[in-house]
Design goal:
- About 5% of the residues lie in helices and about 35% in strands.
- The chain has about 525 residues and is mainly beta.
- Strands 1, 2, 3, 6, 7 and 9 form a 6-stranded mixed sheet that branches.
């Protein structure tokens, strides 16, 4: 055994075994030192405490050795205001107070200014082996412990590596390369340790900043994680037959997953678009007149008005009026709450494809258009007038009238939708005014009904889900039964609000009905 060593105690091993079985982390929080009760001795694994503890404090750091993953390094700093004793032993403690590891330490005197005439901080490091190193957790209040020099150096390096501006590279690739061994990059013989910008791989996910090695290349430490490779990363190239003294920027946007996301680099040495006009960030331009189809510059206002989303919304509440050409492309609502009458522009004065989207919210809307006709799926018949029924909406598109055997242009009425109640007892309104309703109900039964005569002794009233605004065309009723005899049913007292029904049966029966009106 070495003169100085670290041992896991028997209690520490038992604690580690229990944590591993339970799947919980090993939590270490304290570092203590002792003077061995005045003499050097050889601690063993049976220890549950130091022979004579003289100081205990928080661990500064706890991490795996990068070359030996099963080795753990624990660090602590004894402050300058304690001391006056020798350090001969040390211990590492769990957050539950178990002595996890015991250390034989080279005898060292810890002075304190008050009694020794000098004071100093005392840095301690212990290295020990754990079979479950990945599960060991440092549990301390990091606002109360001091940062070690190595921690500060590592922290600063990591933060600098996250900056978009990277340390320059010696050369940059111009074609797909093998990411291994010394080779020539853009005419430069790169050697082990040189930084290279790899930007032209067939598999663009492999692009990035690498360090040349005699074996496989690794990504540079300032560009080897998602946090360090972000949009707008930039790097300068020092040498090269074609790329010397150039600057490259990562133009891949969004979240980057290194090794998965394709990385694209762009030469920004002369700024963007060095040969073409530079990007215009803030200028504005005059908006061309409505329906212009020439070579004028299209502003976003013009494009919005001509294509894509509705160019706006307007509503009309007057009893009558004219819809101006400037409302083309808008969503137009009629919200008076009663019947309205409006005129669309003459279709022959508008470009093909001009569209108006109209919705009747509070009542029927009677539409006309000078020198124009209304046709199309929702219009049913070609007519100089069209009634947009309350609760429906349609699109009116300027089209050629040739398809309906008339000269000039017309409004094609398409895409109509209407209110509906999609339920067991429901209704559907068509853009042309037709309303269909359906539902379940009851037909009255009576012994005298077994053979219908000139009178009906009992009826049952069945209301419609809503009243027909204008007229009921008719009601169709059928006996609703899972099987057995089909029972005749009659209706009477039909109104726009509902109907009465009777069955040729001694008792009331269930029925299903359908009604059509406008």
């Amino acid at each position: 055994m070495s003169d100085y060593y670290t041992l896991l105690t028997q209690a520490g091993i038992a604690y580690e075994t229990a944590c591993k079985a339970a799947g919980t982390p090993i939590r270490l929080s304290k570092f203590s030192v002792g003077d061995g009760n005045g003499a050097v001795y050889n601690p063993d694994a049976s220890a549950t405490a130091l022979r004579r503890e003289v100081w205990r404090g928080d661990l500064n750091a706890l991490y795996q050795d990068p070359k030996n993953p099963s080795w753990l390094m624990a660090e602590a700093t004894i402050p300058d205001d304690v001391g006056g004793w020798y350090v001969r032993e040390a211990g590492i403690w769990t957050d539950t107070g178990i002595l996890y590891a015991v250390i034989k330490y080279a005898e060292s005197y810890k002075p304190v200014l008050a009694t020794s005439g000098q004071g100093k901080e005392f840095y301690l490091r212990a290295i020990f082996q754990s079979s479950n190193a990945a599960q060991v957790t440092l549990l301390v209040d990091d606002t109360l412990v001091k940062a070690t020099r190595s921690w500060v150096a590592g922290y600063v390096a990591d933060e600098l590596a996250k900056l978009d501006q990277k340390q320059s590279v010696r050369a940059a690739s111009t074609a797909n390369i093998t990411l291994s061994g010394a080779q020539k990059i853009d005419g430069v013989a790169v050697v082990e340790g040189d930084r290279v910008l790899v930007k032209s791989q067939v598999a663009a996910k492999d692009n990035g900043i690498y360090v040349v090695a005699n074996g496989p290349w690794l990504r540079a430490t300032d560009a080897n994680s998602n946090a360090k490779v972000t949009p707008a990363l930039s790097v300068s190239v020092e040498e090269g037959a074609t790329l010397a003294d150039t600057i490259w920027q990562l133009v891949t946007d969004g979240v980057i997953v290194l090794g998965t996301t394709a990385l694209t680099f762009q030469n920004i040495s002369q700024g963007f678009a060095p040969l073409n006009a530079p990007a215009l960030l803030n200028p504005t331009a005059n908006t061309p007149v409505q329906f212009n189809n020439g070579k004028a510059l299209a502003t976003t206002e013009f494009v919005q008005r001509a294509l894509g989303s509705r160019s706006g919304y307007t509503d009309y509440q007057a009893a009558s009026g004219v819809i101006p050409v400037t409302d083309a492309g808008k969503y137009i609502g009629f919200n008076r709450g009663s019947a309205q009458a409006y005129a669309l522009p003459d279709a022959n004065t508008l470009p093909l494809g001009t569209s108006f989207y109209l919705e009747a919210v509070g009542g029927d809307v009677s539409l006309t258009a000078a020198n124009s006709r209304f046709a199309g799926p929702a219009a049913q018949v070609v007519s100089p007038t069209y009634v947009l029924r309350n609760g429906t909406a349609c699109e009116f598109i300027v089209m050629s009238s040739a398809s309906v055997g008339e000269p000039g242009l017309s409004y094609r009425v398409v895409g109509g939708v209407g209110k509906a109640l999609l339920a067991r007892n429901g209704f559907e309104r068509m853009p042309n005014g037709l309303i269909r309703m359906w539902g379940d109900g009851v037909a009255g039964g009576d012994p005298s009904h077994l053979s219908f005569g000139s009178s009906i002794a009992k009826t049952a009233y069945n209301p419609f889900p809503m009243a027909f605004p204008n007229e009921l065309f008719g009601v169709l009723v059928t006996h609703r039964s899972a099987g057995g005899v089909a029972i005749p049913v009659v209706t009477t007292g039909e109104t726009v609000n509902g109907f009465k029904s009777a069955a040729s049966w001694a008792n009331d029966i269930a029925i299903h009905w359908q009604a059509i009106g406008r």
